[in-house]
Amino acid sequence: MRMLVFFDLPTLTTEDKRQYRQFRKLLIKNGFIMLQESVYCKMMTSPSMENSIKLLIHKNKPSQGIIQTLVVTEKQFVKMDYVVGEYTGDVIDTEERLVVL
To answer: Which cofactors must be present for this protein to function (predicted)?
Structure first.
């Protein structure tokens, strides 16, 4: 499974910018990779991992803005269609459970 996190956070004041940076760093620290600006992705191996990540996001949410999560299967994630732009090798998009780098 993959969890996608979409967020739109204000960056008008210095406090807004600080909260934006903290949230972004939290995602990166917990294994999320950036698919595009304000869209991050993480591979998960179990439903309990999904619940713990959702709880972490809820506990560390900024005071303003919008944050959304979406969980998709590997099969759905691999079928992502690139309309404009190119595939980058940063994201592992295979249905296999074990990927050797």
So the answer is: Mg(2+)
